UniProtKB/TrEMBL annotation:
Keywords: Membrane, Transmembrane, Transmembrane helix
The keyword Transmembrane helix is assigned to this record: yes
A single GO cellular-component term on record: ATP-binding cassette (ABC) transporter complex
Molecular function terms from GO: ABC-type transporter activity
This protein's name: ABC transmembrane type-2 domain-containing protein
Pfam families, per database record: ABC2_membrane
Residues that span the membrane, as ranges: 7-25, 31-49, 61-80, 92-112, 119-136, 142-161, 173-192, 227-249
Record flagged with keyword Membrane: yes
Membrane topology: Multi-pass membrane protein
Domain ABC transmembrane type-2: 25-252
UniProt-annotated location(s): Membrane
């Protein structure tokens, strides 16, 4: 019981401190710009670009897709930088040298980014409602579950990328590459059935693909039973990415201890 309480304390305190450390360099104005204004501007850009090409009737398609896409900012950039910067900032040696539960440390790096990502999506839907998104027939509880699962799933990918970034010189290169791959392949701005076959195969291995499809179904009034398989698959993909990330994290720790390369690039 004591070990469980200690692990929980490490999880919560580590999660909070790592989230604060991620934004230690910024001011409230720049934080708001990066977490609210930029994602909303991106959503509006793809919305009006899509409507100019396909017509006003497709507005709901682009609003829902890009509102869900906002979660990738916290999940990809936030989580990857939280894990990857442990090495850059010189704190990794203290984490690895501590007797703390490794799983609690690892998962804690994603916790507040999950909440942050959910908040970003909610703001996206609020803005969407102001510009024409009709939620009168939407299954709101189902939509809320979708937002939660999408944030967890994408943060699972972020944890894996963060572990990989421990061996990379440039974390942002990894972030940008994966973020734009998800933007293109997830179906946020291009219907999956209109993609080439190879793109559809790639999209099935990425988080958000099923969440975006689920969100569109819930906005149209679908029941939880109809969408449950999509949500379960999305959650499983996120757990798989997180598991791979944790395995890589432990492998990196083992190799770093063996070779004495904790602070070497």
């Amino acid at each position: 019981m004591r070990r469980l309480i200690a692990s929980l304390r490490i999880f919560v305190s580590g999660a909070w401190l790592s989230y604060i450390a991620l934004f230690h360099w910024t001011h409230p104005a720049s934080y708001i710009a990066s977490k609210i204004i930029m994602p909303i501007a991106s959503m509006l850009f793809f919305l009006y670009l899509g409507m100019s090409a396909t017509g006003y009737d497709t507005a709901q398609f682009y609003i829902v897709g890009n509102a869900l896409q906002i979660v990738a900012i916290s999940a990809i950039y936030g989580v990857t930088m939280t894990v990857g910067h442990e090495r850059n900032m010189g704190t990794l040696i203290y984490l690895i040298g501590s007797p703390a539960n490794r799983l609690a440390i690892f998962l804690g790096r994603a916790f507040f980014n999950i909440l942050d990502g959910m908040l970003g999506v909610v703001i996206g839907f609020i803005v969407g409602g102001l510009i024409g998104l009709d939620l009168t027939s939407a299954n709101l509880p189902g939509l809320a579950i979708t937002i939660l699962i999408s944030s967890i799933s994408t943060c699972g990918l972020g944890l894996m990328l963060g572990s990989i970034s421990l061996t990379a010189l440039n974390v942002m290169f990894v972030n940008n590459t994966i973020f734009f791959l998800i933007l293109v392949f997830s179906g946020a701005n291009l219907p999956l059935d209109k993609m080439p076959a190879w793109m559809q195969v790639v999209s099935k291995w990425l988080p958000l693909t099923r969440s975006i499809k689920s969100a569109r179904l819930f906005v149209s009034g679908a029941s939880l039973t109809e969408v449950s398989l999509l949500l379960a698959s999305e959650f499983a993909i996120g757990l798989a990415y997180a598991l791979v990330g944790f395995i890589f994290f432990r492998w990196f720790e083992f190799q770093a201890r063996k070779r004495g390369t904790l602070e070497a690039f």
